[in-house]
């Protein structure tokens, strides 16, 4: 699966482990975020994420309809958009839109 980052701080957080002053996270959150992104990149398609119960993969509803999410931990989740490439469901492109505090 191909993964693209919608915001610069999300890419920086994945590549370097740090982001700008506005987006600071605890070190264990950053490590788990990187681990989940790596896991997403290893999967052939988005449906493979449903095999991992700890990720709690789901399509969001309501004001976030059109987005999907996977859990980083009990408090944070990664929100992303799903796209298919050339009509194939095998090569799914995820656009990571946010690392959000789910209960905020």
Written overview of the protein:
The protein has about 100 residues and is an alpha+beta fold. It is built from two helices and five strands; from the N terminus they run βααββββ. Strands 1-5-4-3-2 form a five-stranded mixed sheet. A hairpin with a 2-residue loop joins strand 4 and strand 5. The N and C termini lie far apart (about 30 Å). The relative contact order is 0.23. The model has no long low-confidence stretch (mean pLDDT about 85).
Summarize the SSE layout with pairings.
Elements: E1 2-5, H1 8-15, H2 27-42, E2 58-59, E3 68-71, E4 76-85, E5 88-101
Parallel strand pairs: 1-5
Antiparallel strand pairs: 2-3, 3-4, 4-5
Assign a percent range to the helix content: 10-25%
Structural class designation: alpha+beta
Instruction: Indicate the proportion of strand residues.
Output: 25-35%
Order of H and E elements: EHHEEEE
> What is the spatial order of strands in the main beta sheet?
1-5-4-3-2
Give a brief rundown of this model.
This protein has 104 residues and is of the alpha+beta class. It is built from two helices and five strands, in the order βααββββ.
